[in-house]
Every structure is written in C-alpha cells, then in structure tokens.
Design a protein that fits this description.
The structure is a homodimer of 279-residue chains. Chain A is of the alpha/beta class and 279 residues long. In chain A, 43% of the residues lie in helices and 16% in strands. In chain A, the strands form 2 sheets. An 8-stranded parallel barrel of chain A has the order 1-2-3-4-5-6-7-10, surrounded by 5 helices. In chain A, helix 6 links the parallel strand 5 and strand 6. The interface between A and B is medium-sized, with 33 and 33 residues.
Chain lengths: 279, 279
Amino acid sequence: MSEHLRRLSLNQKTTNAWSLKEAVDGCLRHGIQSIGVWREPVADIGLDKAQRLIRDAGLRVSSLCRGGFLTAEGAAARQHALEENKRAIDEASALNADCLVMVVGGLPLGSRDLPAARSRVADLLDELVPMAADQGVRLALEPMHPIFTADRGVLATLGEALDLAEKYPAETVGVVVDSFHVWWDPQLEAQVARASNRIASFQVCDWITPLPADTLLSRGIMGDGHIDFHHHYDLVTRAGYHGDIEVEIFNADVWAANPDTVLALIKQRTLTQVLPPTT
Amino acid sequence: MSEHLRRLSLNQKTTNAWSLKEAVDGCLRHGIQSIGVWREPVADIGLDKAQRLIRDAGLRVSSLCRGGFLTAEGAAARQHALEENKRAIDEASALNADCLVMVVGGLPLGSRDLPAARSRVADLLDELVPMAADQGVRLALEPMHPIFTADRGVLATLGEALDLAEKYPAETVGVVVDSFHVWWDPQLEAQVARASNRIASFQVCDWITPLPADTLLSRGIMGDGHIDFHHHYDLVTRAGYHGDIEVEIFNADVWAANPDTVLALIKQRTLTQVLPPTT
C-alpha cells in the first residue's frame, strides 16, 4: 500500500453488495485505512458488533451516512426527524466517526415552497446542534447537486451550507465538499476557501455524461467524467483540509462489478486523478 | 382569448412537430400574440419568408433561440463561433426579436477545465456585444441548470450570468430567467432583484420527478412538477419585468401529443399556475 493512499477512505456505498464485515475485510485486504459507513448495514449487525469490528480492524471512520431529512411538515414529522437524528448522532459517537453526513431532504410531497423547506432545515438544525455537541459529534451539512433539490436535498450550494453552518462552532457543524455535488458551482473556489476549517468531509466521484437514466446512480469513478479532481484536491488543501478522501460511488455498473476489482481501481484512480503527481 | 394571456408567448420547441408556419397558425387559432422562434425552422423556410409570415400574422417575437456555444478551444473554433453568432444576430434583427437567447456551451470534449471554458465565454462575448449593439439586438445570457454544465451550458447561475452581463449596457446584454434552470438557486430572490432591467426573457416550464431518462427532454408543463411559478412571476414583476411569458417545453410526451391540445393546456396552466389569481 502506497503511503500516498493513507488518506483514502472507502465509503461502503461504493461496494454496495458487501456487508459491513465484507467491506472492512476488503479494506484490510487492500490496505485501505479508513471507511465511511452507512447506518443501515450497521443496523444489520448491530451497533456494538459494528463498533468492535471496525475498532479491531484498526480502521478510522471518516463519516457516518446519514442524518438529515429535516424538511417534512407538521409536528409529528418534526418530532420523528429529531428522534431519528438523535439516534444517528448516538451511532456516530459510538463509532467515533469524524462526522455525521446530513442530507437535509427535499420538498415534501405536493409542496412547492422551497424557502419554507429550507427554513425548516435551519429550525431543526438549531435543535440538533446541542445534541451533537453533547456527544462530541460533528454534523456535516452536505450541499447536493441541484438535480436533487426537489427530492433529496434542498441545500443546493456550498455557500448556502456555510450560511447555515456558520451560526455554530466549527467543531460541531461543518460541511461536506463532495466533488459530484459542487463541481459546477461558479463560486466553488471562493466557497471552499471560505469553508476553511468547516470542511468535515471531502468526497470524490465523477460527473459522467450522458447521465444514466436513474439519476441516483449517476456517479462515475474518478477519471470517467468531467471533474478536475486535482483542482478540487488543491482547493480543499489550500483551505486547510488534511483529512480523509472518501470515495463514494452510486453506480449500477460499479455495484455489479467484483468489489475487489473496484477497490483496486479506486486506489489507482485516487493516485492518478485526485492526489498530486509524485515527483 | 383572455386579456390575462396577452403576454403569453409560445416557444416553438413546445410544439416541436410543427413547422414555423404551423406554429404561427396555431398561435392565431388560439389567440396567442407572441412566439419564440428557433433558427433551424426559420432556416427551413428562409429568413425572408419567416419574417413575412410572422409580421403578417401580427405576432411579437419574444426570442430567437439560439446563439452561443462559445466554449470550444482553438482559433478555428473561435472564428466559427463568431461567424455563427454574427449570423444569429442578423437573424434576430431581421425578425425583430426581443432578444437572442445565448446558450453558452459546455466543456469541450475531453476537457475538465471549467474556469477556462467560462473565460472563453467572457472573451467571445466581448467581441459579440458590439456586433449586437450595431444591429440593435439584445443578447440574453441563459444560465442553465447545473445538470447541463458539462455538456450544454457552463453558465450555471443567474448571479454568474449577471456578473458577465453587467460589463455591458443593459439594452445590449440581458439575462434569461428560465424557471426550470434557476428554481433551485438559494440566491434566486436576490439575483432576480439584482437582474432588474436586465431580464430579457422570462421562460417557464416545470421540474418534474422522477427525471425522464433523457435529461434534455425532462421539462414538464407548469403544474406537473415542483416549481412555484406564482412566486417566480412575483419576483420578475417586482424586478420590473413586464414582457412576454414564454412557454418552452422539451418533453417527449408533450411532443407526441396533439399540438392544439398542448396549446389549450398551456393557456389554461399559464392562467392557473403562473399568472396571479384574478380577483
């Protein structure tokens, strides 16, 4: 394993066919030292077992995916979102995750009131921040590509995420810089610089065209699309980020491939497409 | 025809199966007083004939689509883009169009240098503005939804379009506010207000989910998706825009329907979904 890859983290969605145990074993087999885990596969084996598994393997947990979904209307939905996020915060704490990724949710069914959905996010965040601070968990607000504004994440730009985050201490509320979600933004350079010590997670995967029919599975392996990852690496590095580089790929073809082949490929592509050339 | 619909314009892409003559006849049959035309169907019958056809019908021309595609690399491509846009400007002048819609183009094949592509747009615009001013034509920069940044339009936000436009007189360089392209933007309210007398065109069509497999044909009829058009109407009106409201829908189902049925439907939806309720 190249020393250059010591910051590589496997988000387990990239190897979607694998259980958490298989993903942890895969990381060990490939010399990957960090993992981004999802709540559902953790729940499949139980939090205690997941915790032991990861600790015994000596892996860092670069992120827990995901909290959020804060946009539903009404008191009952609000209460449900708070409880669900409280559980996610507890899990992030137990797993010693660097952050809990927050996908804030889209427009409620039948609603067209985007400003109202956004203000519900701000409102619930206000309640969640003290819970996260109590547990020493960092919430990482994830701006999502505007292709997902309607149905997944009303937080559409890094600037908007920072406007929200900056009301709270940086150690409790950060942001995710996910190349796929932010690469198109004309303010990318300025907003990554502004993000500075708020960058809680740096995720990479490519924007490919033509876009696959299922937009949720439209993410490519670095180098297969249009994103200049070296540029993004430079931006987050200059902003002071030196944490893990998490590869998170939702793609039906990648999921259908042999996960060991995928791990070998993302290691190679991280070296050639993301990290600066070694001289 | 309701007086309330006097500002409705049919962008002829909405009735893609119709020739320009059929679209003009359709407008007359349905009492629609304005049309947005495309260069290709104009070329099909020749500019002089198109000009007479529209003038004799007494229709306004709310826009000519389209100029742009300014991002290609190299001197030959640059020269080609200038010549093509010069022709488009001449046509917009001949047709007495309110504006020439500028779709600026995506990343050149194989390039990942988004800032460079954007700076080529600024560079060519600098040459095109005097040509447009000479002909009394208004260029309308169209920010496109970030789903199209890679392959169609590197201009991704209204703010970015205004940064470009504001270097020139408002009567020569304006912007398009197309609901489909800008609805997700957290800065929408601020940027439409800023746009003020630069709003050269207000286009409407809906963001629908799930997104159709061909993203180019993913636009819905107003009311079928997630956009609050009343809100957009209020924003552009408060910004001082009182021009045409152009319905431009790229959608395979709409294109397969009887165009007369489509015209009746967009009239109804413009009344119920876009214009303020009559009291």
